Prior knowledge:
Elements: E1 7-10, E2 17-22, H1 29-36, E3 44-51, E4 57-64, E5 69-70, H2 77-84
Amino acid sequence: MAEIGDVVLLKSGGPEMIIKNILTGSGSSREKAALLKGFKKGDVTCEFQTEDAKGNTKRTVQTFKAVCLKTPDGKFLAEVGAADDDDDDDDDW
């Protein structure tokens, strides 16, 4: 499973991003807001930097669905989590 501080990328490309939070269903106000926007447990909040045309750097914090992300070595984040999830009962029936 991905952890806070891990580096991830969008599957479609873009800058490297650092995981700042993983939604856990804790009930915090920040998580409630993310859930209202359609995110769910396991989705991640990342921080990354972009540069505008003038060369100014901008820090951005944004939440992404885990299925949209991959690790720098090309593994999809949702698959990394599924491979490490010992509580997966989907294959028991």
